[in-house]
Amino acid sequence: MQYIIATHNQGKLAELRRILAPMGIEAVTVEGLSEPEENGATFAENAYIKAAAACRETGKPAVADDSGLCIDALGGEPGVRTARYAPVGQRKLTVLQKLSGLPRPQRTARFVSAVCCVFPDGRVITAEGICEGYIGTACRGDGGFGYDPIFEIEDGRTFAELDDGEKDAISHRGKALRLFKQKLQEELEKSLC
Ligand code: IMP
Question: pLDDT, tens digit, for every residue of 111-168?
């Protein structure tokens, strides 16, 4: 089964591909997809905006992920603005500076991923996943992408210090995609009835 993946983020694309492949879902990219304005108030709304645009432009089922980091000490920021929180190259440092001096119990945060699939006939499937953790005090690890080097799980390792399989097993995106797969199966079974 082929699905268009509506993302320009290579880190995200790699994760979507490797998690969806064992589920029998082939993630296909298309050159020149537009980048619609992500002006939704929630991750789910933004995921829908991206998936709907890609479906409209290609005429094929399209999947998008909208995700971000919600930090309790910052009132849930950066949230849906995670990708635009600070200039490229300064995002992790900006977060670390804002939390400077706070002890670990006050550094709680969560990654959220909303996955949305839009079909040409108008059907929509949405699934969300959350991974709880902490913001570290410095960047650690070489794996992953984005904010991974500053996001610590319970045992103190950052997402960037996990191997791919370990991250996928607990990550917001892994959880969202496993739920998505379940909903997709139900949807496909319904259409066979
Ligand atoms: P989006 O493309 O609008 O969904 O932006 C997502 C933002 O959250 C980007 O800045 C990503 O780097 C960041 N992000 C989302 N998921 C992850 C993750 O798994 N690890 C690190 N950063 C992430």
Answer: 999 999 999 999 999 999 999 999 999 999 999 999 999 999 999 999 999 999 999 9
Look up the domain containing 159 and give its range.
2-192
| Distance (Å) from CA 119 to ligand 1 centroid | 24
Taken in order 140, 143, 145, 148, is the CA torsion positive or negative? negative
The CATH number linked to 53 is 3.90.950.10
Which residue, judged by its Cα, is nearest atom 5 of ligand 1?
Answer: 83
Give yes or no: 66 in active site: yes
Q: Is the pTM of this model over 0.85?
A: yes
Neighbours of 13 (CB within 10 A): 17
Residue among 66, 121, 148, 168 flagged as catalytic? 66
How many structural domains is the chain composed of?
1
